[in-house]
Predict the 3D structure of the following.
Amino acid sequence: MSNNLPAVSIEAVTSGLASAGYIASPQIATAVYLAERIEKPILVEGPAGVGKTELAKALAAWRGLKMIRMQCYEGLDEAKALYEWKYAKQLLYTQILKDKLGEVLGGAETLSAALDRLHDFGDVFFSKEFVEPRPLLQALEQAKGCVLLVDEIDKSDAEFESLLLEILSDYQISIPELGTVAALVKPTVILTSNGERDLSDALKRRCLHLHIGFPEQKLEERIVESRVPGISQSLRGQIVGFINQVRALDLKKLPSVSETIDWARVLVLLQSSELDHETVKETLNVLLKYEADIETAMPQVTSFVAKAGRQGVFG
Ligand SMILES: Nc1ncnc2c1ncn2[C@@H]1O[C@H](COP(=O)(O)OP(=O)(O)O)[C@@H](O)[C@H]1O
Ligand SMILES: [Mg+2]
């Protein structure tokens, strides 16, 4: 499907996202359904690697829409997010104008008359022609609409949020020299945050809130099935069963869905058909990114594998 009409049901969202390889929990599908219906942005929060960014990509792919990504970082400002004046072009035009200055100012009787004429040119310099649109403005200018992903907003400074408020509530941007630019078609906006800092109430108020945590076991198995084609059902079950036990440990960084997928790919590559504790120990570094975490998990491997094996058979 690729049209701009909102989905008719939550089930339609689930299957639409699945057609783009994204396995959505009922909460995710409901949030997307509602966001389209009431034309509100979704603020997705959750740990790294649980599918926040991918949700925007899958939504765009399913809808046949362009995805415009605004990657946030410390120091991100208006000029990088909204628009910038094309200084080089303005400069070039100044040069040309300089050559023509005699003609332009010719006949101006007084200094103030000459200044008035120059002011008219000032307006030319601050016209649409000299605006370089950045992601947020680009998103409003898409004739077919788009999915606007404002990724990792918690990495930007708090002031950046206030820049977003006008877009999030009115789908428009005010450019002092030009006036208001309104969206041709309202973009579907997805903001993501890893929760590194609290976001402002004003921002939260404008968004539907969606928390994505680690998926429950059956859902994660389906995610692995979607991302690692050819993996057997039993290995899939054992991998997810093992990882869920690891997630109960007290670790610096718990393995996320992205680690589950990476590990599943590695095990398929190593032609494992079942989890065995030797292979698990050798590949634990795919799952855990800190030496201290590997040391914590290592003594548990044998018992976790045994339990995951039983789950794989009977689960
Ligand atoms: N529900 C899901 N369905 C399919 N793939 C998923 C899902 N959740 C996560 N993934 C995969 O996990 C990886 C990490 O997802 P990503 O969106 O980058 O995480 P985040 O933005 O939350 O840090 C990606 O490769 C993504 O395709
Ligand atoms: Mg991300």
